[in-house]
Amino acid sequence: xxxxxxxxxxxxxxxxxxxxxxxxxxxxxxxxxxxxxxxxxxxxxxxxxxxxxxxxxxxxxxxxxxxxxxxxxxxxxxxxxxxxxxxxxxxxxxxxxxxxxxxxxxxxxxxxxxxxxxxxxxxxxxxxxxxxxxxxxxxxxxxxxxxxxxxxxxxxxxxxxxxxxxxxxxxxxxxxxxxxxxxxxxxxxxxxxxxxxxxxxxxxxxxxxxxxxxxxxxxxxxxxx
Length: 225
What we know:
mainly beta; 5-stranded mixed sheet; 4-stranded antiparallel sheet; globular
């Protein structure tokens, strides 16, 4: 990407093909505290965004006709989307977005949602005003936690494996505290619960063809939940 303004570039964390066959890329806001260049809310550049491109056509790709801003941008208002995933059953989109100084968040977008979702950064940090106050049109997090419980969220996957009691639960963790949470929607409300603690800093989650979930830590280990 051109125009990245800082060395701590908040470069995001994953490429994923969506249920529509397009490639999605979570891209950070370019770095420096507080997004001073306001990239997150600027839909004319690619920083602080979720990008969506067609890699099966064009050289090297084409922009899907229904992208909302006529460029690669599909959704915006992200700070550092450290891992994105799609629910393999429903196609819902999940994003772990690393916070600034106080709040880590999990963002959610149901399958079939149109492009143009605004996840709020840097107007909001989680559910809390940062450069501004809550306003119509912002997609607020499905879950958040403050820095008493960690410092940097690692987004995960919705469980679709062999254990029915875990079916539909979204697993995510924190790099610093090593806590792993489960998140599920029930009776119209989101419910998060602390489940486990890893023995190393959580860098990523993965999912196999059977829907089982794995995690990696910075001590070089891979674990299956």
